[in-house]
Structures are given as structure tokens and as C-alpha cells.
Amino acid sequence: MAAVLFVVTFAGTGAAFAYQSLQGGVERHDLDDILGSDRPTTTEPDNPDDALEGEAYNILVMGTDSREGEENASLGGGQDSVEGMRSDTTLLVHVAADRSRVDVVSIPRDLLVTIPSCQLPDGTSTYEQYDTMFNSAFALGGGTGDVGYAAGCTVRTVEAMTGIFIHDFVVVDMAGFKDMVDAIGGVDMCFDEDLYSEDAKLDISAGCHTLDGETALAVARARKGVGLGDGSDIGRIDRQQELLTNMVEQVLDRNILTNSTELYQFLQAATSSLTTSERIGNLTTMAGLAYSLRGTEMDGVNFATVPFDWAGNRVRPNYLSEELWTSIRDDEPMALPPDPDATDEAPDGTGDTGDTAGGDGTDDTAGAGEG
């Protein structure tokens, strides 16, 4: 079904050439080979020919600020300014079995978690680590420079924390995100005050703007600077979710998922520098999933952040997080506190727990820095 859909979607556009040109930009990894069998349980698909049909689907999306490549180096501030492999943004995306909802949970990089032992491509394994920043998982798994294993260690950490089976992963670099925004004609956002961050290359005035890809990337990456609050990752997540909400709204309003020309342009941008697990990296699967969401309304797209309590300058999942994970495992609407700021008091004593990471927002572990 997905293969037929892909051909129909691109009929008249040189489907074979289009497929080859898009598929060539995707670096795929076998997640089962990386993770093995010690994973949460999942149901077997009713239709073995289309494993996604009628099934709830969980995908882990990671944004990396890798400086590999000329464009990423330019966007990130230089090839040599940052060492190591780092994931800066992680989203758990749950697609409901009936395709009526897409629930997106932001996982703060400063979240303190247990990182299980992760297999490396040379056959060795990392040691289990306790009370460690969440985004260290990507750095640990990617210690040999393999993005697939970096993503695999992050998937293993999320599965251990949530009990949710992750079907696939996608890693997007800075250039890929920029190109996706440009492919949909930019994204509209309004700002109450001027925003400026030298580190993130952000300089935008108060008011409403249509952001091009480079500016949208800067908004997503910026933590410290004028108009950016306390420099925390928690505060940045709010801006990222607003940005992503506006992007989704524009994709749905312009019917990009059902317009073959615009869908091709979007997928061309999305796959230009993408690392994925085996299944979702197949263009027939990707196009089929996009088409299956054509009836999803904007009020069915929901964003949330892992409920947390403060732990010094970091954050820790609280009891409400288990209620959230349970609702996702059961394919139910996300269970969230009625007040999105209903967590313990922030480190500054203000009680504003939704946008403060404490201190000056600096980070001296793997994953530090803007973006």
C-alpha cells in the first residue's frame, strides 16, 4: 500500500528519478541490530505488508548541532568551535493508531536520568550511568562518530525511562532543519520584544515576522541573550514548541501532504541530510505516513514537556511523568497536569517552573553550548 501510494503521489514528476534523488540523501541504520531484543513489548502489526497501517507509532526525533559539513559549520559558528557528537533537541512523537492525534513530548536535555549500557559499533559497550543529563546519551553512543549508535543510545535511554517502544528514529542536522523551513516558504512567528543572541546568530526585532530557515534555526537554538529569559533549556523549549506548532499549521493549511509538487519539495529538503532507522528512512514508508496524516486537524497536534521537578540547576522527572508515559503507551490523549507550570518551585524561588533551568544556563557536560 505504501509503495503504491508513493508512486501515485509522485506520478507525473518522474517518480523513479524523484525516488532515487530523495532516497540518496538518507543515511539509514538498523535499529534492531543496534538495540537487540531487550526492549519494551509492542504489538505485532495486523498487516505485515504495511506495519504502520492501523497501528500506534512512536518515533524519536533528534536535532543535532553537528558542525560536520560546510553549511553546518557556517550555521553553527565554525567547524572547530565544538567537539564531540551532541543532540540538542529531542522529541518523542506519538502518532495515534486512528491518525486523529499527533502528540509531541519535548525531553529537556538537562533532565537527569539513568542512561543504560549502550552497544558501540566496535562491539564494546558503554557503562550504565546514573543521575546523568539526558543528552549525554547521544554523546556516549556517538563516541566513535557513528550517528546511528548515538541515536540508538538515546532511544534505549527513552525506552528505559518511559517503557514506550520506539519504532523509529530520525536525526536532523542544522542544515536539514533550515532547508525544511525554507521549503514551506518560511514560518510565521510573533515576538513581544527584540531577541538577540550572538552565539546563535539571532538578531530579530519585536513584532510579527515570516522567518526564513536560517532565522528559524537561530530562534530554535538560542538560549542566552537579549529577550531570551534566563538562558535555560526549559525556556527555549517553549519557543521551539511554538515554532514547530506554526510550522505544522502552515503545512496543513497549504495541504502540502496532498500536493505532489509541494510534498516532493518538502521531502527533498527533509531528506537532504537525514539519518534515520531503516523503516522510516525508506521513502515509501515516509510518504505513506505523511499521506495517512492528511486528515489530521491542527487541534489534533499537541505539544507537551516532560513534567519535572527542579534538582539544583537541572530537572528530574516527577510522578506526573509516569501518568504521561502511561497515556502514550495506552494510545490515549496525553495525561498532563491542568497547569503546565505545576511543578516544584524554581531555583530562584519565584515559583516560575516553566522557563527556568537555574544559574546562568551554562552547561559543562556533553551537549553544552548554544543549539
TrEMBL record:
Which species does this protein come from?
Ruania alba
TM segment ranges:
none
Annotated NCBIfam families: lytR_cpsA_psr (TIGR00350)
Q: Which residues form the Cell envelope-related transcriptional attenuator domain?
A: 86-251
Q: By what name is this protein known?
A: Cell envelope-related function transcriptional attenuator common domain-containing protein
Q: Which family does it belong to?
A: Belongs to the LytR/CpsA/Psr (LCP) family.
Could you tell me which PANTHER family the record lists for this protein? POLYISOPRENYL-TEICHOIC ACID--PEPTIDOGLYCAN TEICHOIC ACID TRANSFERASE TAGU
Region Disordered, annotated ranges? 329-371
Superkingdom of this entry's organism? Bacteria
Matching entries from InterPro entries are given as:
LytR/CpsA/Psr_CW_biosynth, LytR_CpsA_psr
